[in-house]
Every structure is written in C-alpha cells, then in structure tokens.
Amino acid sequence: MKTETSLVIDCGGYTVKTGISRLDEPKVYLNAITKAKSEKRRLFVSNQLDECRDASGLFYMIPFQKGYLVNWDIQKTIWDYIYGKEELNFDFANQKVVLTEPYFNFQPIQEGLAEVFFEDLECEALYKTNPGTLSCHKYMKEHPGEACCLVVDSGYSFTHIIPHVHGKPVKSKTIRVDVGGKLLTNHLKDTISYRQLNVMDETYVVNQIKEDICFVSQNLAKDFEIAKKRGDENTIALDYVLPDFTTLKRGKIKEKTEESIEGEQTLRLTNERFTVPEVLFHPSDLGIPQMGISEAIVHTIESCPPELHSHLFKNIVLTGGNCVIPGFRDRVETDVRFMAPSIMEVGVVVPSNPITYAWHGGAAFSKEPGSSKFFVTRKEYDEHGYNIFEDKYSK
C-alpha cells in the first residue's frame, strides 16, 4: 500500500457521500442526472442541479433502481463529475478505496464494481462492504464495551435491519422493509395531487416539502383529532409557499403573521404531515404486506439467539436519511419499548448526522493498522480475478 489515507465512497440510491478519510466531513452529491424543462439542451450532472434556474418539472435519470445499480453509464458519468477536474480532481491511481454496495448485492453488479475500480480507475486496493457494517464499526468505536448492535439503515429505496455481533453482520437474520424515502415522496405527491394541485411531475419540489414539513406522530389518534380542528386550535395545519424559481428558489413554511404576496402559490397541509412518514411504521397503509420498522426491529432481535437479546435491544442505531424526520427516534423507542420484554433495557441512538454516519465509519476503519488485510489489491485482482474477494471475505 502506498498511501496511509483512503478514499471512502458511500454510494447510495439518492446521494453519494465521499471524501478522503482524513477529512472531518464528506461531501454529499446527488446521485442522479437531471433534465429541466426550462433548459432542454443541458443535462445537470449531480450537484450541477444547483445551477438550474428553474427546477420545476425535473426529469431524473438515476443509476439505481429498487436499491441496486443497474445503469452503469449514468453512474460512471456521475463519478466522472465528482472525481474529475470539476469537483474533487481526484486521481485513483495508487489509492486505497473503501466502497459501499447494496445489501444482498447481485453477483454481476459486484463483479462490475470491481472491474470499474481496478481496470477503469486503476485504484491500488479496494474494500467493498455495505453501509451497515461501517455504521456498526463507528458505533463500536464510540461504545467499546459493547459486543453487539442492531443497525437500522432507512434510506432512499429500502429500510434494512441488520444485527451485528462482534462487528460482523448476521446476514441470515437481516430483514428488508420495502419502504424508503422515494416511496414517501411519491406518496406525498399522490396525496397533494389528489387533494389540491397536480404535482406528479414535481419530484424535486415535493421532496423538499417532505423534508420541510413532515414529522413522525407519537400519538396518531390525538394528531388526527387536532388536524380536524379549525383556526388556531389546529396546530398541525400550515401553509407552504411553493417556489417560483425567480424570487423564491426553495419553498418555505408560511408564518401565520406573514401577509400574502400577489401571485404566490400556497398549499394547505394538515394530516399529510404525519400520515406520509407513518408508512414507515405501517407499510400496509399502502398495500405493502410487510412489518413496519419497529415491529421488524423486535422480530429481528427475537430471531437471534436469546443470549444476544439484551445486547441488541440496548444498542439500536438508526442511520439513513429517513432518520432525520422529526420524531423518528422517539417513535421507534416508544414502539420497541412497548413490544420488548419488560426486563429488557431499550436504547435507541441517532447519530448527529445519520446520512453520513456510514462514511465516518469507513474513514475510521481505513485508518486502523489492521484494516489492510481486508483490502484486495490490484495485483491480487489481476492474478485471481473477482474470486479473490470471496476468498478474502470468507476467512
């Protein structure tokens, strides 16, 4: 190995979190190419979208579908933008790379990733893993006395619940819930379009609305009652001013004392604020016959050996973009506490930034003296092909 630092790439379905391991924070890039109605001749690669003057009616071209990398051309274009002269200006030659891949990734995609990084980018060494393993590594460094943790990774496409014992994932006990941030945004689009205004082509704007106004209910019946009330008694209803991309680039919540401006377009949002994220806890609301996140957490723990239960219940780590939604952690803790045996201590932790937590875990892992044995070098790959990954990781 010629370098002591590594490039850490947490490549998700919605964003790419990346940076050299010695940095305090990674840079976050949109993992998509977008096309705008207002500028038909130009494609916006990743964060070039910030240069778009009118982001209404954006068309997204994304490399991931249903959580897996399927469009290599789009992904390579995005990587070229991020690591080319326009952004990081990074040379992969003689560098170590820590790369995340989806859980239960398909073999052809795994082989394709290795081929790109060794043959096209010519990196010196590669360590492939999933975000949950890196999050576990970070958590274990922060809590050295613990032997186990349960990582809940709720991202763009799916939510995965992964028990870890002594830093290793128990794959046979891992559960996937087919609900993620993309589904929540689409559900909010459907709801607003049915009730008020057709926003089916406004994924970008509606995603911002979701980020600005949604919260996880701690008491559904109570919140529904409040949402039915009129006037000031309804503390849930709010007006949201839509962007016009001239004077207002991003929508905003309208204060009650704020006067209306001629020509501004507003939405009145009430129970959508909490019914949309409720799908995370009750997927059956949208006809998805699966357990919600809280129920899946308890089911996963109880499917593990009994001697692990107490360790897993008190070390539940929430990561991924959906964990940023206000009230998410409190709801998980309340639900799990209700379903868990009364003698069990329940501990639910949300990192200060659950979106970049896995990247920080990768950065910490790459700096450790013993981490080199997990990397596959380009020389090993040239001699043995992709099988060297399976041989090394099975030890």
TrEMBL record:
Its main location: cytoplasm. It comes from the Eukaryota. GO terms for cellular component: cytoskeleton; nucleus. SUPFAM superfamilies: Actin-like ATPase domain. Keywords: Cytoplasm, Cytoskeleton, Nucleus. Coiled coil: none annotated. It holds the Pfam family Actin. It is found in: Cytoplasm, Cytoskeleton; Nucleus. Transmembrane segments: none annotated. InterPro entries: Actin, ATPase_NBD. The keyword Ribosomal protein does not apply. The keyword S-adenosyl-L-methionine does not apply. Belongs to the actin family. ARP6 subfamily. This is Actin-related protein 6. It comes from Artemia franciscana.
